[in-house]
Specification:
heterodimer, A: alpha/beta, seven-stranded mixed β-sheet, two-stranded parallel ribbon, B: Recoverin, domain 1
């Protein structure tokens, strides 16, 4: 019996075409039974209650326990002891030493070399790359970089998938990027407004509509400059757990410049690098990384892409997202990452309503 | 929050299972409990309307507001009981009963012309005019031998929908 409104009732995790999902043509005369049968829509709603891909994007995955065995348990205890009593203090000392070198030299360079702009910027770049590699070392970051290193030239913007603020640190230790970032509070905010500011980083507040316009303007100015650090954007706008990728914001794809995709994939063998900012402060997140054995990760610098003729910025963004998702082996979901912070808008339900209305009207004609 | 599933004892699970007439396996109930705790963000013991609406796939459902009235503030036992109509073990009658409840918003055991119209309004939104909707409902009621003034009872519903295969099966993911 043909259903009036047919859709996928199963909990399908790969809803790539969710947005473009069109109900298969239902034919035949419209009967009372067809109109009353709302079961596909109900089961969709129940499916979303039981499981949904949006929540899955932001779920931190605790490591598989492997120590519940009499033989392995002492080994695990030894591991915990090593991590917390030996590795952690060593890492704290390392981090401390790094800052001891970095802060005075950075201030010296910043204030003494005011006149020699070019040299100052070069030295500042080196110093920021240095402190970032200290950070990476403090969680024994085992990072493998694939592909050519980013170069400094105007009219290009780098986009990467986002898992945690450590993405930025990992990329920054290789190349001093200027990054577009959410403004944070606390010590991160302090670093943002002092040190990172000098790299040309741009801050904004997600909730401020006005900030968006200002950021777009600043980005446009930034990509034009020849001596500016390459621009890095995390177009998802929020941290995702590295298993999925949410929709890209279209702004970096509207700048009329080359987009260089970067794919980042973390190996969860020792620790989950996802920063769940709603549950954990960044400090706690770093502490968790610093008490683990290592952070293992792959970074791919992918082939630069340009807007094809006839392509809209949104299509372009989707194409780049595809490239990153395939390389990093993460699944695409059609959701806006900002819905983590604000209410979804009802545009999507309107699409469903439209499909339903058209189907009913069409079948009413077929009497 | 992640450990809260361990708080379900064998007794709890059996009690919930009984409450939903054994339509879910024990494993499914454990999974549902994890999900319940995930949605009940601040551990109040029930899921508020706001928390349901934070799931985009639910919020975009044209019937979400209507369903909210049925699921808002349910505790875990009733939450499972509500979902049990979507279990593959649920009978056709149970599924039809649930659909009847969705239509019968004033819970008087009768579905009137206006009830059907209201659901159709949710389903079609701004893409159909009120006249078109009335025309559609009128037309199908007449075709099936009912008039505009008569109201449908649960038995009528079972007669109308009973012969079809309804798509109401939802799988509980087991991890």
């Amino acid at each position: 019996m043909p259903g009036l409104y047919s859709s996928n009732s199963e909990v399908d995790l790969d809803r790539h075409d969710y947005l473009h999902e069109s109900s298969p043509e239902a034919h035949g005369k419209l009967l009372l039974h067809d109109l009353l049968d709302i079961s596909p829509i109900l089961s969709e709603a129940a499916g979303a209650i039981v499981d949904d891909s949006f929540t899955r994007c932001f779920k931190s995955n605790p490591p598989e326990p492997w120590n519940w065995n009499v033989y392995l348990f002492p080994l695990w205890c030894l591991g915990v002891l090593t991590r917390y009593v030996v590795l952690f203090p060593l890492r704290v000392v390392l981090l401390f030493a790094g800052w001891l070198i970095f802060l005075p030299s950075f201030s010296l360079v910043h204030f003494l070399l005011r006149k020699n702009d070019k040299l100052r910027r070069q030295l500042e770049r080196y110093l920021v790359e240095f402190i970032c590699s200290v950070f990476v070392a403090s969680w024994t970051g085992v990072v493998k970089y694939h592909g050519p290193r980013p170069s400094m030239r105007p009219k290009q913007v780098f986009v990467a998938n986002h898992t945690s603020m450590i993405d930025f640190i990992i990329l920054e230790q290789m190349t001093a990027f200027a990054v577009i970032m959410q403004k944070h509070a606390g010590w991160v905010g302090l670093l943002q407004s002092t040190i990172l500011e000098s790299l040309g980083c741009i801050w904004f507040n997600r909730t401020e509509a006005k900030d968006r316009e200002i950021v777009v303007k600043k980005m446009k100015e930034h990509v034009e400059g020849t001596d500016n650090n390459p621009l890095l954007v995390f177009p998802e706008g929020t941290c995702v757990n590295n298993e999925y990728t949410v929709m890209f914001k279209k702004t970096p794809f509207e700048l009329d410049c080359t987009v260089c995709p970067i794919a980042i994939k973390y190996n969860k063998i020792f620790v989950d690098a996802f920063w769940n900012s709603k549950k954990q402060s960044f400090t706690n997140h770093l502490l968790r990384l610093m008490t683990s054995w290592a952070v293992v990760c792959d970074v791919w610098y992918l082939e630069p892409q340009t807007l094809k003729p006839g392509e809209t910025p949104i299509q372009f963004a989707e194409r780049v997202r595809d490239i990153i998702a395939v390389r990093a082996g993460i699944k695409k979901v059609p959701w806006n990452g900002y819905w983590k912070h604000e209410r979804p808008n009802p545009k999507h339900s309107e699409q469903k309503q439209q499909g339903f209305a058209e189907s009913v009207l069409r079948r009413l004609q077929e009497r | 929050m992640g450990n809260s599933s361990s708080m379900l004892t064998q007794y709890d699970i059996e009690e919930v299972q009984e409450h939903c007439n054994n339509l879910f396996s024990q494993q499914e109930i454990v999974s549902l409990y994890q999900r319940f705790c995930q949605l009940d963000r601040n551990g109040k013991g029930f899921i508020s309307a706001d928390e349901f609406m934070s799931v985009p796939e639910f919020a975009f459902n044209p019937l979400s507001q209507r369903l909210l009235r049925m699921v808002d503030g349910l505790n875990f036992k009733d939450f499972v009981a509500f979902l049990s109509s979507f279990s593959s073990r649920a009978s056709l009658q149970q599924k039809i009963e649930l659909m009847f409840k969705v239509y019968d918003s004033d819970c008087n055991g009768k579905v009137t012309f206006n009830d059907i119209l209201a659901v159709l309004r949710d389903l079609t939104g701004p893409f159909m005019t009120e006249e078109q909707r009335e025309q559609v409902v009128n037309h199908v009621l007449k075709e099936a031998g009912y008039t505009q003034d008569c109201s449908l009872s649960l038995d009528n519903f079972i007669k109308i929908l009973g012969k079809s295969d309804l798509k109401t099966e939802v799988e509980v993911p087991l991890d």
